[in-house]
Amino acid sequence: MGRSNFLDKDLIFDKERENIFHVITNYDTRNFGFVFAMLKYKRDGKGLWRGYNRVLKNYGVHNLVKNPQNFMYQPCLDASFPVVYTSQIGLHLTPEDGLDKVMKGKVDEDLTNVVLSIVDKIGTKGVGVGGSILAGTYHSKSDVDLIIYGKDRSLDVYYQLNELGTDNEWIEETSRNYELPVDQVLYLYDRKRRGILNGVKVSINFVDISSYKLCNELCESFYPVNDVSLYVEEGQVEALFYPARVKVSGNIEEGKIDEIISYEGIYSSLLFKGGKMRVDGVLIKCENRNMVIIGDRKFRGNIRRFV
């Protein structure tokens, strides 16, 4: 039906239909025999999601590393990632097919009306529907996960969409989950990315249409750095994707910092908006650049707007 390559926010069912995985990142790893993907649901016959129960109850790398699934160390990135082996894949679902289901009236009316309300404004080009709607496991209180594909389309939709009301539950849950003060979470919250429409929670996710080559360069993890002052230029669309990636200017004793990569999605909009940041993360040295990583499994990291 749809494309065969894996992109961020795609879904994978294993061959026994016992587990549902969410693809993370756009790294093309099929030829290596695996896909970067996190286990999110497991079937037990009793779960709220049509017999599936949620395994990963809260997002964040600090929760993901505890997930009961396979992790694989990637030496060129000097990090471990959750994986599903290609030999285990029974079904690959793409959000583009999820939107097709909605448009053909195959989804609950309340959820369909929310999707239609948004696409009436932004159109259907480069749009998909993911999450439980795509999986077919949605229930009466499910969210709507909209996916926007491509750099130009992502920028268009980001600046165009203003219909969502504030999701106060997300603010409270994020503060608790990441152990951050509410005042900081309010800076991180972006109503263009997450909110409420007609009583339904909605998330707007952005995905690059390009696959990334794994091991394009060799990188090595060094040590945590704290309270580093870095300047981020506003409007870098790569900040909207996962992982968020932005070019920066700034220095530490070890030299120039060229880039921030955040595996914690909560910092995505803050990086997109740019400005002077105070950053805690892990120093990564690659062949031609230095980076600070947010979301290392041993050092969570943080990004704060410089005041």
UniProtKB/TrEMBL annotation:
Sequence ranges assigned to domain Polymerase nucleotidyl transferase in this UniProt record: 122-191
Top-level taxon: Archaea
Keyword field: Transferase
InterPro entries: NT_sf, Polymerase_NTP_transf_dom
An MF annotation (GO) of this entry: nucleotidyltransferase activity
SUPFAM superfamilies: Nucleotidyltransferase
Name under which the protein is recorded: Nucleotidyltransferase
